Every structure is written in C-alpha cells, then in structure tokens.
Amino acid sequence: MHIVVTGGAGFIGANFVHHVVREHPGTEVTVLDALTYAGDRRSLDPVADQITFVTGDIADTATVDRLVAAADAVVHFAAESHNDNSLADPWPFVQTNVVGTYTLLEAVRRHGTRLHHVSTDEVYGDLELDDPAKFTPTTPYNPSSPYSSTKASSDMLVRAWVRSFGVAATISNCSNNYGPYQHVEKFIPRQVTNVIDGVRPKLYGTGHNVRDWIHVDDHNAAVWEILTRGQIGETYLIGADGEVDNKTVVQTLLELMGQSPDAYDLVCDRPGHDLRYAIDATRLRDELGWAPRFTSFRDGLAATVDWYRANEAWWRPQKDATEARYATLGR
Ligand code: NAD
Ligand code: TDX
Fold first, then answer.
1. Which residues are CB-contacts of 325 (< 8 A; sequence separation ≥ 6)?
2. pLDDT for 59-110, tens place per residue?
3. Is there an atom of ligand 2 within 6 Å of 250 CB?
4. I need a surface site. Which of 178, 209, 295, 310 has the fewest CB within 10 A?
C-alpha cells in the first residue's frame, strides 16, 4: 500500500510515520507537509531514508492531485491545531482546515483514493464536570472555538462527500494526545520545558478543566486499524479513558521533575475555554479490537518528561518565540 500522510512533520503525523515504518514495513509512505511553524522535518530524521518528503500545501490543487493520483490512501493529519492561535487569528484555520480538506476531498473523488480524516473530540463542544455522559459517534456537533469549528466543518465536508459522491472515507475524533515531538505551545510540553528552564508552570483559570489524555502511539495504532479495517463512511471515537484535570497534570509533572507540587501559577483563562472532554471508544474497541497500550498516564508522562530532557536541541529553537506569543496574551 502507498499512503500519503498530510501533516507528517507535525506532532501526531510524525509519530504516525514512525509507527508505520516500524510496524508495517511494506508500506510506501509519502509525506505532504507545508512546514508551517508547527512542522519540523527533523521529527522525521530517524526514518528519512525510508519515506518520500514533499514540501507543499494541502490547499494547492496541482500538488495534491499529483500525489493523490499515485496513492492508494491518504491519511489526513495536516491542520492548524492550536486553540489559542485560532483565537488570535482564525483565518489560517479556515484556509487549511476547511479549504485544505476540501481540496483533498476533490482529489480523492477524482482518483477513487481511500481517505482517512483525522479529527478531534472538540467538535462535540464540552461536558459539565459532573456529567456522567461521554462523547459518542451520535453526540451532536457543538464546537466552541475557531479551531474546533473549522475541524467540525472539515468533518461535515467529509461526511457530505461520502454520501453525495461515494468517496471512500472514514473519520476519527480523538481526545488530547501527549508524547514525543509535540510542539512546546501545547499544555504538557510547555509546562515540562518551563520547569526545565526554572519557570513555574502556568494553569489557565482555575486549573479544573478536564482533558481525556491518550498517548500518541495509542492514537496512531487506532488510526492504522481504522484505515485498514474500518467501515467506509463511519466515524470512530478514539480515547483511552484518561480523564485528568489540568491541575493534577501539572502537580504530577512537578512531582516527577522533583519540584514542590504547588510550584505553579494560575494565569488568566482562555476565552471560551472548554470545561471537559470525555470519549466513549466502545465502537473502536468492539469492532476493531483496539485497546490502548499506555494504561498508566503517570508512566507515559514520565517517559515524555525524559524525552524532552533528552531532546532539548529539538524544542529549544521554538521556545522563546512561543513564550513571547503567550506573553502578549497575558498567559
Ligand atoms: P501539529 O500542529 O503538531 O502539526 C500539524 C502539521 O500540519 C504541521 O507539520 C504543519 O506544518 C502541517 N500543516 C499545517 N498547515 C498545512 C497545510 N496547509 N498544508 C500542509 N501541511 C500543513 O498538529 P497535531 O497536534 O499533530 O495534530 C494533527 C491532527 O490531529 C490535526 O488534524 C488535529 O486536529 C488532530 N488532533 C490533534 C489532537 C492533539 O491532541 N494534538 C487530538 C485530536 C486530534
Ligand atoms: O499553558 C497552558 N496552560 C493551561 O492550563 C496551556 C497551553 C494550556 N492549558 C490548558 C488548556 C486546556 O484545558 O490545558 C489544556 C490543554 O491545552 P492545549 O494543549 O492547548 O490543548 P486543547 O486546547 O485541549 O486542544 C488539544 O486537544 C485537542 C489539541 O491542541 C487539539 O489540536 C486537539 O484537537
């Protein structure tokens, strides 16, 4: 099988490429990535001689058409992915997440190529802290931010192209990922690298918001199962029953890094900040037999801390610019 991986120089996409090269060695992999501030070719260094890398935009029809024509499947990770950035400037989110996904859909329609669209649980909005409910594939869409509304839009486009044009696509909506190669703008890498730099972690608002954490390798193993064995036209939710509030995440990190558990600061909240996400992954578990391998969040966090400690050369170039952006937001 020849797959095109969009966004393969980003956090989850790069880990997916590593996963495929490691676990499914017969697969031919072409990465299409625009190398925005969030993409880093060095994340693919360990597999560089086993893949083809194309620098390009998913909204560029000619490039996309050429690559899609030669592939059996597209695994679509490319996106603008950070909520805080989408509040500061929504336009790149509309352009990449909506127009870019549209461009890919038209190409897979022309060439009959299989598509797996990678999306997020944030399309469902948020849950109350004490609500026993979790998101399921039939939960109504109710996105809160420019980021999540553009991801919801892209999901809707995929659904419509399946129904109206018979495109062979699947969708997955996953919860918050953690692991190696995640940009330092995101919550866990930001706090780990702050502590390494002697800066106190920064919790938005009260720190009571809950995220449903999953290790990136568990997400990517699920994506592979859906790509190869999922039912066309279906939506699969991916989650590992990893609900933890942000304050507990920071306190665990502080403890793992030898600091006092109250050595953090509360900073001003993100506007529209979703309270809680929680995933019911029953379909994925029952239909495809998937189960997470990282069952201890604490152990997964400890390994992630070790990775950031050992790979300062990878994250250091992004750190100052990222913190300068946060400083302008007061966060
Ligand atoms: P990321 O920001 O780390 O990486 C995005 C990648 O896409 C970068 O390499 C970037 O250069 C590339 N890209 C951006 N715009 C592009 C364009 N126009 N054309 C080509 N490439 C472009 O994001 P991530 O955290 O790895 O997320 C990957 C996907 O997974 C996204 O679709 C996101 O919505 C989804 N997702 C992320 C999470 C999470 O916790 N990070 C959870 C669920 C779903
Ligand atoms: O410094 C911080 N302090 C803080 O308290 C940062 C950067 C974040 N937070 C909070 C906000 C969230 O409640 O931590 C939580 C996680 O924040 P992010 O890492 O920005 O992730 P989130 O907004 O939950 O979205 C992530 O998961 C779903 C990804 O960035 C999305 O791409 C994915 O779709």
1. 88, 185
2. 999 999 999 999 999 999 999 999 999 999 999 999 999 999 999 999 999 9
3. no
4. 310
